[in-house]
Amino acid sequence: MVVNAQKIKELREKENLSTYALAEKVYTSQSMITHIENKIKEPSVGLLLRIADYFKVSTDYLLDRDNPEAKIS
Description:
mainly alpha, 434 Repressor (Amino-terminal Domain), single chain, 5 helices
């Protein structure tokens, strides 16, 4: 599973949230959010679900599966 890190960053910035604030909202660490956005780590399925739920988007959106040209792994 490969998350579109840019989409998470854009959603976070649109809500005017710091990485720390988002981390608190989705029950993870600030460093995890930073690592996800910098493509160092992938989120667990549970964290991906919490991020999607918080922003009211689908996991398919975060995985770039709504883009027909994106590769699905």
